Amino acid sequence: MSAGNSIGKDFVFTCFGESHGKCVGAIIDGCPAGLSFWKKDIQLELDRRIPSKREIVSARVEKDSVEILSGVFEGRTTGAPICALTRNRDARSSEYRQTKDLLRPGHADYSARIRYRNFNDYRGGGRFSGRMTVAFIMAGAVAKKLLRRFNVNIAAYTVAIGGIELRREPTIDEIERRFDNPVRCPDPDTAKIMEEAIMNAKAEGDSLGGIVQCIATNVPPGLGQPIFDSLDADLAKMLFNIPAVKGVEVGAGFKSAEMKGSEFNDFYSIREGKITTLTNNAGGIQGGISSGMPISIRVAIKPTSSIGKKQKTVDLSRMKDTIIEVKGRHDPCIVPKAVSVVESSIALILADHMLRAGAIPKVLAEE
Amino acid sequence: MSAGNSIGKDFVFTCFGESHGKCVGAIIDGCPAGLSFWKKDIQLELDRRIPSKREIVSARVEKDSVEILSGVFEGRTTGAPICALTRNRDARSSEYRQTKDLLRPGHADYSARIRYRNFNDYRGGGRFSGRMTVAFIMAGAVAKKLLRRFNVNIAAYTVAIGGIELRREPTIDEIERRFDNPVRCPDPDTAKIMEEAIMNAKAEGDSLGGIVQCIATNVPPGLGQPIFDSLDADLAKMLFNIPAVKGVEVGAGFKSAEMKGSEFNDFYSIREGKITTLTNNAGGIQGGISSGMPISIRVAIKPTSSIGKKQKTVDLSRMKDTIIEVKGRHDPCIVPKAVSVVESSIALILADHMLRAGAIPKVLAEE
Amino acid sequence: MSAGNSIGKDFVFTCFGESHGKCVGAIIDGCPAGLSFWKKDIQLELDRRIPSKREIVSARVEKDSVEILSGVFEGRTTGAPICALTRNRDARSSEYRQTKDLLRPGHADYSARIRYRNFNDYRGGGRFSGRMTVAFIMAGAVAKKLLRRFNVNIAAYTVAIGGIELRREPTIDEIERRFDNPVRCPDPDTAKIMEEAIMNAKAEGDSLGGIVQCIATNVPPGLGQPIFDSLDADLAKMLFNIPAVKGVEVGAGFKSAEMKGSEFNDFYSIREGKITTLTNNAGGIQGGISSGMPISIRVAIKPTSSIGKKQKTVDLSRMKDTIIEVKGRHDPCIVPKAVSVVESSIALILADHMLRAGAIPKVLAEE
Amino acid sequence: MSAGNSIGKDFVFTCFGESHGKCVGAIIDGCPAGLSFWKKDIQLELDRRIPSKREIVSARVEKDSVEILSGVFEGRTTGAPICALTRNRDARSSEYRQTKDLLRPGHADYSARIRYRNFNDYRGGGRFSGRMTVAFIMAGAVAKKLLRRFNVNIAAYTVAIGGIELRREPTIDEIERRFDNPVRCPDPDTAKIMEEAIMNAKAEGDSLGGIVQCIATNVPPGLGQPIFDSLDADLAKMLFNIPAVKGVEVGAGFKSAEMKGSEFNDFYSIREGKITTLTNNAGGIQGGISSGMPISIRVAIKPTSSIGKKQKTVDLSRMKDTIIEVKGRHDPCIVPKAVSVVESSIALILADHMLRAGAIPKVLAEE
């Protein structure tokens, strides 16, 4: 029965709102006072979330417009909780009412009914809708602004969609241009093929999943609170809270299971007076603590649950097996949107651990 | 600077102790009063952790003997914190003193020094030693006893070591006999090959990683506190806190990234009057809430960091590149021990979420 | 630097907003799904907060109108976070800008400047304004509705203002009519004298403090999580967070310091088959756990900080001693408003401990 | 059902053990690495807890000897959890077994039975024994050592016992010698009278309560995390968790209820270039944040529950009213011991808030 809608310890993000309710909202508690912050810092991130090529995403027109309700005064954070809100506009709830007793495969319809004893707001998936991630983006915008004060840089991008994989390391330059194409893959050629795959799946009334990679550079060594608030543990927790995430790996990840110690171990070496490692199989985290090397994480995204094809399911009103055709406007692939969400999620955890390490006051003082 | 050595919300596990200090200890706070519990409930789990075939594990003789210091009275939990302790015996610290300025590749030596400003107890890896998992086992024993009152069953087992993979689903019977062989693989033939691979790696002064699978059956639907204390998120967080874990996947995991929605979605169907799904790609968790299907998780374990081979590293006392030969007695593969640790870790989180769902009092009342 | 704007463990109240910002808001996370709840449940409490006789309170016209943004669907809580909001209307901020460098005696001006390094929203006291208690009232309305499902009854009332004390126990009937007079004292004659005292203080440009008593009846025995989340400890913590509270006592409170054990101890006795005590010096809490006897708490409220009289202070812009005349519209006595806030605060903690005790599901199921 | 045996956010104190179990233990999680710390730092505090004049305290011989199990290495804290343990020696449990169904007036016997469904360790009061405060002392010793690095000074002393009150402000010198007399009152003459009062109460088979005052000087301004982790709120919470505390007041406390605003308000003034106030009715805390003035708190302690006199009670085994004569060795007045406990408790909260304010690293770096 206990509460679970907040995450973070010193930089605490609380998410409220529903898919077809009045709004989606985010509270950030713990952001230090004095950070220069404006509405546009959030709005830019919200705009970037939605690929411009509307064919590959949901037909729901979600031009989200943020309102900041508290915590910012004269262009600076005050140290009080920041509340940011986006009103829902284009919700069409009637479709959901008609089919509310048909469990949609891949969705949380059944588990949510049990958990909330049928009282959850089921319209559009309610709290389980991808729309909730608008709050992640809003909160992430505060985290990113804070991290920029420390020169920490975070970039997520698509490395696989529907089995089509980017097999080489993209350049920094390519990564910076990842939002230029609708699938957010740093390689334009691969992006083209991914895009086609999505359009094909859409045509079939089907959907695709994929893999998002995230790299955080310039993260200072020493972040993380082992044993149980390890940096990788907190990152994984946050990422698994994103709807559709089924796997998280750090550094070499599952490949490390096939490696020998002599292959996996990152050898230390001094480069320009600094301790570095020659490889980065650890993914920038050793013993749950950042090592100063880039943090590298990969996240598996399942294919969109809502598809046009007929599927077997149960009609709860009659407790009988039946067939469902899911209506509504859905993304044939949510990986492109997930890129922004993964990026924001990682920013939120890094900001929290920065504050937990006591890193902030000095930097803001210099502002 | 903040504390991070506790995990769980209603069933809280705190871990203390060091590899070469006086002891490893666990506190469980929140275990309901009235649970039948004895020292042997922990001792059995501790004994089972160490494979009988000593060749494949560390030569350190760790016959661990538990002492319960509080929270149990006349064979029952009292509702007060349970403190369980295992004294360290066979620690040989002198080796570590000599080489304390040589960063051991794969270990947390560097990140820990930064985090604790050189004051951490480095002997045997200190808090970063696999020995800390003895506390996971002790706490997990309480969780398992509690879960048994609900008929929840948890079984972890090895599915891959050094690239050798068990490619078929083992039977329930085989899973039950997983501790009969030293690598804890349910298939005896595959187990044999894995064992040989470990011995070969050992002979080369090298080490192997692998994958542990865990299945929890009979978990009631409705566990999990989304958005941020989702069941999969809390499980992933706990698992990433186990030393050497580099990846976690739930259900189809990373494979889901290559599947279409029509392949991935688990179709609902009524079986014997109960809502079930025909497949279990979700791994028993939908929208962060248990669905009643078996919970299925896979964990990637990196190869043991300490290897006999020479490795490049840095000597901090001289700030120079150098070569290290790691001494000490080390497991050529920690996957067999990790099986117990993964099992305990998952038990701890499930027990916490059982309590968070308010499930306990009635059951204990019937005892 | 860490966050502190949430309280409660299973029923979590987060407060946001500022005195002269856009709004005051409350998030309730953890309210069980299925509770019948409407906007009017909050509105009634907000209306009751302000004494009808406007002379004894601030001239600021605060007809607060609540908006529920999330967590309620078709007249029932959904289990998702409930966000309730009251817009600020009648804020006159210009006065505060002119005198922002003059520390107002009795206020948090100085400590807040240090804590938030001058970036706090100082207008109207910002986060330190009594206006923040509007959020306490909104959140308390949810708690009260929940507690009513268990027949728990909470009543706060004024027992002293400016040294004028109600020296006898009021009857249940009198307590029920406490909101009939503007000072919320159950005895109408004493209320009259208190009212006059307030008007006199106002005429002098001065202010008065007082004592609020709160009684909670029908609280089941067994609530409280000692050692550190004792029921009295959590109540005291919540109460000290109300602006202007300088003391909290439970049962006989400070008088117990003068009593002998034989006088203080509440003797047990069976009454109508139930365990009760013949006296209630413990105030319904033994060892940090509710005993089933009425919970009785007294709260000391300091006189309103803002007074018309000239006061010595410091001008921070010139770092010089000076004289201040505090402008603005202020209550000559906040005790009448504090009655509602104390009642709400105690409801919030009791609701949290009800949920922590696992008490909810059954009761809602019967609804 | 949830856990409640930890307190603090960045400096977390967990208490385990029972009065007649094996030990009383404390875990401190979050103490920064590098603090010089030795067993004797705790032992001195434990020794000082027990007045030398044995007549006025319990006859139970509690020469407590601390053992540090973890978190300290080569005379310095490591950043890992510190576990400190005191074994119980002189427990005589048989007396408690015989009368376990007779509810002892003033004790938590009844509320604890309900809370823990009869499974609590009732011997010697179990978790509700004053003996638990040994853990407060042990943890407090770490907090005090840390605070000394910031020159924060904390002194608690007795100001009232059984109605005999110290009516004047003691000098700093007198406060420093408070442990010279068995009642810990800074004024030797008043101490003498208090001592006699205790001996008289003892002779009658009765007990006395009292009031402990605590002053913390040199606390930097800016500590506290309003709205809900206000410094006074966290202090009050901690203090109410001490067995026998029935009231807490800050600064003028309950007296402020009788004061006018013009009397209560502390006027600001510059003294030696620093912002101070001419009076300290606020008790060093404004708006939940320390102001830099001395923190002043008073705590009401009820008379010892166990008395020799016959008392009415209930025999649960027969569900009948009866008479009880409480056996065992008890303090006629616990106020002298409470002085150490109040001091430790306040140190724990101040240390936590120091860390939460990010104050530590720089100071330790200078060591």
Helix content of chain A: 25-40%
The strand line-up of the biggest sheet of chain A is 1-2-3-7-4
CATH topology of chain A: Chorismate synthase, AroC fold
- Which chains make the largest contact? C-D, 115 and 115 residues
Q: Strand fraction band of chain A?
A: 15-25%
Task: Please identify the top-level CATH class of chain A.
Answer: Alpha Beta
Number of domains of chain A: 1
Structural class estimated from helices and strands of chain A: alpha+beta
Q: Please describe the biggest sheet of chain A, giving its number of strands, its sense, and whether it closes into a barrel.
A: 5 strands, antiparallel
**SSE topology string of chain A:** EEEHEEEEHHHEEHHEHEHEEEEEEEHH
For the record, the CATH architecture of chain A stands as 4-Layer Sandwich
Instruction: Give the number of DSSP strands of chain A.
Output: 18
The quaternary structure here is homotetramer
- Average pLDDT of chain A, rounded to a whole number, is 93
The coarse overall form of chain A would be globular
How many H/I helices of chain A?
A: 10
Weakly predicted, low-confidence segments of chain A: none
First-residue to last-residue Cα separation of chain A: 44 Å
C-alpha Rg of chain A (nearest Å)? 21 Å
CATH superfamily of chain A: Chorismate synthase AroC
